[in-house]
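Student: Please help interpret what follows.
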Amino acid sequence: MDRDALKSWLDAYVAAWKSYERDAIAELFSERAEYRYHPDDEPIRGRRAIVESWLADRDEAGTYDGHYEPFAVEGDAAVATGTSTYYEPDGSVQCIYDNCYVMRFDPDGRCREFTEWFRKRPSGQPGTGS
């Protein structure tokens, strides 16, 4: 894994989130991947279970966006930071989450361990509206 490969993976992650296409989600993760939505969660284990988890709890189309950038890459380990933004029906910003993703990848560039760390920005912070 290098910074360019991680950036491509992160872009594919956002595209899969926006499309909720089963194959696009599955392509991101190794067969025995572990995914945690929160650091202290018991992991969701296996590509199929991760895909089903994403599909079971969909965000409404057009109400969100994400942008993530590589922060650090060393061997198969990587960290990315960025934001997830959610919008009101009128297009105004509802809320922004600052994210940190901690990941490990297999030799084929598929994620085998993924842990989300995120924090909702308080109201009144830049980009969050009132």
